[in-house]
Amino acid sequence: MLAGENFSALTAADLADGRDRALANRLITTALRRQGQLNFIIHALLDKGMPGKSGTFEAVLRLSLAQLVFLPDLGAHSALFLAVEAVKRDPKARHLAGLTNAVLRSAQANSAKFSMLSDDLLIPETFGDTWLEAYGEEAIAGFSGALLAGAPLDLTLKDTDSDLIDSLGAEPVIADTVRIEQRDRPVEALPGYSEGRWWVQDTASAIPARLLGLAAGSRVLDLCAAPGGKTAQLIKAGYQVTALDSDARRMERLKENLTRLDYSAELVTADAGTYAPTSPYKGVLLDAPCSATGTFRRHPEVVWHRSVADVAGRVRLQRALLSNAFRCLDAGGVLIYCVCSLEPAEGESQVEWALQNLPGLELWPVEKTELAGLESAVTDKGLVRTHPGMAPGGRDGGMDGFFVARFRRR
């Protein structure tokens, strides 16, 4: 995670004891969400900076500081004792046991001051200025709150059933999306999972597939489809779906998900940038690879491991995929382009590029009436822009940052 990998919550396979597992997940997620503030604290406490070739020292230090400063209910003594013991057990870090103890005791003495650090530190400078200009101060304040709160669990229902919603302890959000604010068991243990009555999908992620507006039975291509949430939506809408992804393992997961839901589609493992169908499609949905900055409620580490160069690389890839998606589209067909990114370069700017470089493609603006309960996400140009500070359907918990544009081929 310090190198940029996404954190997946520890499971019983990692830690058998449920209480230990819950504690470990709480420590890790707190350290990830508070990374900007922990960076400030570490800079203040380590005069010479982070030691090189120090094994697990940094990871242990961050977890312990998170406990000392931001989780005082867990107790300071355990943070100090366990941190020193953990460092001693690592041959590459044991020479830093004394430094670990000294730094943590200094943090304990200054914990009241450090616990009051500004939330401005939670958003890295790499994106802070861009987001401030694009979304405004009020939204950015909402970003910080959403980052610390994390994401509730959103589900897309296969069929609307009030009894199922009640048994899940969920509340309707918009359309066929429901939200579970708190849960005490894994997703697989929730009512209706084994029967394939719903699938996990963030409220924002469920928007693009609803906007195709084609007749039932239309042939639709889902590009970069895995793990299959949008594929399932397209099947539910009555389309003949081809789901394509270049990753064979992710396609296997998509297949498993569709099997659980008792849905079927044509599955193709191929490069979305070069795929050439035998006949064009009436609809193409491209959920393009992106910086994924809009997912920071679930993956807080992502914004600390993305650079301007990373975004530029994704922009180039997205344009190649858009070009091929256009080639796969029949005359009069509909193209949906979407990304789970907060970067205008991956959203609004890509619309301008597509309209200038793909002759015959025109914008089909989304109407506010098409997003009942989330009208504020529809821009004056008919684009869809969600962000973590929004309250879909008036519900707390925010939503992913998503950009959606809808086109037609003349």
UniProtKB/TrEMBL annotation:
Alphabetically sorted, this entry's keywords are: Methyltransferase, RNA-binding, S-adenosyl-L-methionine, Transferase
S-adenosyl-L-methionine: present as a keyword of the record?
Answer: yes
Q: Which Pfam families match?
A: Methyltr_RsmB-F (PF01189), NusB (PF01029)
**BP GO annotations:** regulation of DNA-templated transcription; RNA methylation
InterPro entries per the UniProt record, alphabetical = MeTrfase_RsmB-F_NOP2_cat, MeTrfase_RsmB-F_NOP2_dom, NusB-like_sf, NusB_RsmB_TIM44, RCMT, SAM-dependent_MTases_sf
Residues annotated as domain SAM-dependent MTase RsmB/NOP-type: 115-410
Q: Which residues bind S-adenosyl-L-methionine per the record? A: C224, A225, A226, P227, G228, G229, K230, D245, D271, D287
Single GO term (MF): RNA binding
Q: State whether keyword Membrane applies.
A: no
Q: Which residues form the active site?
A: C340
Family from the record = Belongs to the class I-like SAM-binding methyltransferase superfamily. RsmB/NOP family.
Q: What is this protein called?
A: SAM-dependent MTase RsmB/NOP-type domain-containing protein
Species assigned in the record: Devosia epidermidihirudinis
